[in-house]
Amino acid sequence: MARALLFDIDGTLVDTLGAGRAALTRAMIQVYGETGPIEGFDFHGRTDPSIVRDLLRARGKTNPWIEARFPTLWPAYYRHLDQELADRDGQVSVFAGVRPLLDRLIADERFVIGLVTGNMEEGARRKLRAAGISEVFEFGAFGSDSGRRADLPPLAVARASERFGERFRVVEAVVIGDTPEDIKCARASGARVLAVATGRHEPAELRSHRPDAVVEDLSDTEEIVRILAE
């Protein structure tokens, strides 16, 4: 039975140099007229809808008022994200070891490669395209599917089963992410988790949340494959 590998994007695979934050700031100002306390707000490990809700609830807005404007917010966000990524043309990059690892995993029949990310799906695809790795991931679960990160691994695994016509189990899946929230979302559904210290969190902090393994980055391809196959 093949194993589903579920990658986070920001801080794990791709560095967009703040394009997502800048785009969401512009979109929120356009749609809501404010951003809430966005300066210093930690986006990492959260879903895009939960970020917007938390920021605006801090200003006394209610969820129904916030969510009623989502159909306008997200298209505005995608337009601004396209511009922010274009402004960073040639600078959006993948982290050390990502390309060789993905090439290795694609060729290994023991694995299928997908996404579990708090990004809205259209935003995720834009970021991956800017980094040149958008064709690798054939399934996934996104912030546009649920505002709760814990909902995403089971959904991604179900989509893998549908996509490949094979029964995948969430307890056999591995979430690969760079934040404590990635670890928590994996554990909530019984998935395994590989924590990668390419984001804002040091290895010692990640270890304190008890992932199955922690690595500095994804540059040791064969060691990463060994961990993922365990």
Provide the descriptors you would attach to this structure in a database record.
10 helices; 13% strand; Rossmann fold; 8 strands; 45% helix; DNA polymerase, domain 1; 230 residues; two-stranded antiparallel sheet; alpha/beta; 6-stranded parallel β-sheet
What is the strand and helix layout of this fold?
Blueprint: E1 3-7, E2 14-15, H1 19-32, H2 48-57, H3 63-67, H4 70-87, E3 93-94, H5 98-106, E4 111-116, H6 121-131, E5 140-141, H7 152-164, E6 174-177, H8 180-188, E7 192-196, H9 203-207, E8 213-215, H10 221-229
Could you walk me through the main structural features you see in this protein, from its secondary elements to its overall organization?
With 230 residues, the chain is α/β, with parallel strands linked by helices. It folds into 2 domains: 3-16 and 92-229, HAD superfamily/HAD-like (Rossmann fold, 3-Layer(aba) Sandwich), CATH 3.40.50.1000; 19-87, Putative phosphatase, domain 2 (DNA polymerase, domain 1). The chain has 10 helices and 8 strands. The strands form 2 sheets. Strands 5-4-1-6-7-8 form a 6-stranded parallel sheet, with helices on both faces. Strands 2-3 form a two-stranded antiparallel ribbon. β4, α6 (121-131) and β5 form a beta-alpha-beta unit. α5 (98-106) packs across α10 (221-229). The longest helix has 18 residues, at 70-87. The mean pLDDT is 95.
